[in-house]
């Protein structure tokens, strides 16, 4: 009997035990980041499996990237399977690193226990389940004997949880995600099995210091308190900036709804002498106070505008508040990104969700960022989305899990989407 897309779907269903086992095998390699444990082992595990199934496999160590050492090599794996004739390339990218398990687990976080139709463990949801689903989807398509032009690629990359510099950013800088080489990228991050994530907001982190003059705490009038100056800054945030940001809505379909606007968080605050032995600091007027701000912005805003708004507020204090001085240092920035909703990768994935689940996928943007930022900015490839199994809110939590049904359904969606992208005309 000739293979059809429907028989590929049945093939995936028949392999659901294998999909569970592959997820479990990946979770049992504890690739905790930091420090970046067992990356090489995990990359080689994935690479040898794909090599046995006819993929050309390359390992790329991100030498010199943050955290890379002989003890903790930043080893990425890229596997490519070329089709019968030339054509487009569909790339599935998953990060192999996971965050530390933390406390509060009722399961061993690295045992990948199967219980009541769910696999529990660190990385089941974020995102080894998604990576396993992509592998089974690609293998099932290739083994079906359907004639497919172009190429399918699968990469397992490191350090997504710490910014992706030794992973997707490193590969993108070396052309691995450039248009011409890769046409469509799907990242099976846990965005829920019926949601297609087209991008994320922008990020600007900066350190802000207010400066004062030290003096004895019994005579504060002889000094100038950096903490009081910072208080004035926070007051402006509270009453001017934050309400203005909250009023700034966006066309980006960010979820949850509270993130569908500009936001500002103060990630930390430090000021004054450290407390000594008796739990008391020495009595001094504080001469330096620092905060780290975390500003998330929208496609409707520019990074320059976001920074100018902040310096405008601070310069206003310089003019209006006696003795106010500040220093602002950039720490980290990411531009907002959004794939074209009408573009091929979004359309193909939507159609696949409709066919597999019988309902419309919702189109969302992520409140935070993920490796799509590097594919967009460095790789210059807009045709990139995140779609994968797992519930977003479970990521990084104790008792993280992925449901087996979601794994199987997402594998089907990924196979259908890849098939549509490889065979589409023109
Ligand atoms: Zn993730």
Structural account:
This protein has 426 residues and is α/β, with parallel strands linked by helices. It folds into two domains: 5-200 and 336-423, Zn peptidases (Aminopeptidase); 202-334, Alpha-Beta Plaits, CATH 3.30.70. The protein is 33% helix and 23% strand. It is built from ten helices and 16 strands. Strand 4 and strand 5 (118-120) form a beta hairpin. Helix 1 crosses helix 4, helix 1 (5-14) packs antiparallel against helix 10 (404-423) and helix 2 (16-27) crosses helix 4 (124-143). The protein is elongated, with a radius of gyration of 24 Å. The mean pLDDT is 96. The structure holds zinc ion. Zinc ion (ZN) is lined by residues 95, 126-127, 160, 189, 370.
Identify the notable features of this structure and list them briefly.
single chain; 10 helices; six-stranded mixed sheet; 2 domains; Aminopeptidase; 426 residues; four-stranded antiparallel sheet; 33% helix; alpha/beta; Alpha-Beta Plaits; binds zinc ion
How many strands appear in the DSSP assignment? 16
Q: What is the CATH-assigned architecture of the largest domain?
A: 3-Layer(aba) Sandwich
- What are the distinct ligands in this entry? zinc ion
- Beta-strand content estimate: 15-25%
What is the mean pLDDT?
Answer: 96
Largest sheet: 6 strands, mixed
In CATH's first tier, which class of the largest domain applies? Alpha Beta
With helices defined by DSSP (H or I, 4 residues minimum), what is the helix count?
10
- Secondary-structure element pattern, one letter each: HHHEEEEEHEHEEEHEEHEEHEHEEH
| End-to-end distance | 29 Å
């Amino acid at each position: 009997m000739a293979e059809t897309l429907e028989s590929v779907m049945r093939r995936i269903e028949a392999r659901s035990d294998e999909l569970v086992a592959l997820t479990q095998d990946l979770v049992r390699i504890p690739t905790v980041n930091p420090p970046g444990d067992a990356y090489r082992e995990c990359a080689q595990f994935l690479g040898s499996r794909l090599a046995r199934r006819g993929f050309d496999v390359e390992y790329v160590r991100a030498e010199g990237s943050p955290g890379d050492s002989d003890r903790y090599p930043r080893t990425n794996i890229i596997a490519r399977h070329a089709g019968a004739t030339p054509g487009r390339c569909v790339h599935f990218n998953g990060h192999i690193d996971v965050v530390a398990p933390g406390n509060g687990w009722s399961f061993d976080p690295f045992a990948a226990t199967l219980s009541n139709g769910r696999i529990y463990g660190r990385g089941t949801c974020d995102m080894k389940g998604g990576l396993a689903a992509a592998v089974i989807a690609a293998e099932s398509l290739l083994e079906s004997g359907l004639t497919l032009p172009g190429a399918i690629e699968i990469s397992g990359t490191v350090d997504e949880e710490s910014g992706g510099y030794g992973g997707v950013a490193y590969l993108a800088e070396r052309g691995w995600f450039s248009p011409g080489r890769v046409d469509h990228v799907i990242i099976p991050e846990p965005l829920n099995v019926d949601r297609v994530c087209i991008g994320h907001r922008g990020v600007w982190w900066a350190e802000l210091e207010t400066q004062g003059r030290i003096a004895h705490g019994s005579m504060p009038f002889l000094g100038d308190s950096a903490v009081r100056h910072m208080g004035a800054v926070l007051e402006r945030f509270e009453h001017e900036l934050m309400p203005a940001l909250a009023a700034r809505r966006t066309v980006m379909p960010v979820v949850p709804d509270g993130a569908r606007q500009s936001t500002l968080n103060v990630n930390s605050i430090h000021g004054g002498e450290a407390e000594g032995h008796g739990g008391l600091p020495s009595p001094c007027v504080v001469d330096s106070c620092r905060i780290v701000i975390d500003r998330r912005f929208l496609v409707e805003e520019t990074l320059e505008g976001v920074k100018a708004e902040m310096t405008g507020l601070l310069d206003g204090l310089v003019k209006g508040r006696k003795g106010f001085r500040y220093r602002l240092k950039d720490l980290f920035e990411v531009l907002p990104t959004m794939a074209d909703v009408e573009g091929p990768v979004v359309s193909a994935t939507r159609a696949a969700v409709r066919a597999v689940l019988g309902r419309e996928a919702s189109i969302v943007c992520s409140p935070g960022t993920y490796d799509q930022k590097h594919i967009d900015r460095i790789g210059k490839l807009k045709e990139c989305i995140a779609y994968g199994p797992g519930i977003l809110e479970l990521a990084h939590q104790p008792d993280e899990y992925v449901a087996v049904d979601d794994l199987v359904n997402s594998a089907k969606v990924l196979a259908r989407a890849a098939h549509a992208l490889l065979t589409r005309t023109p």
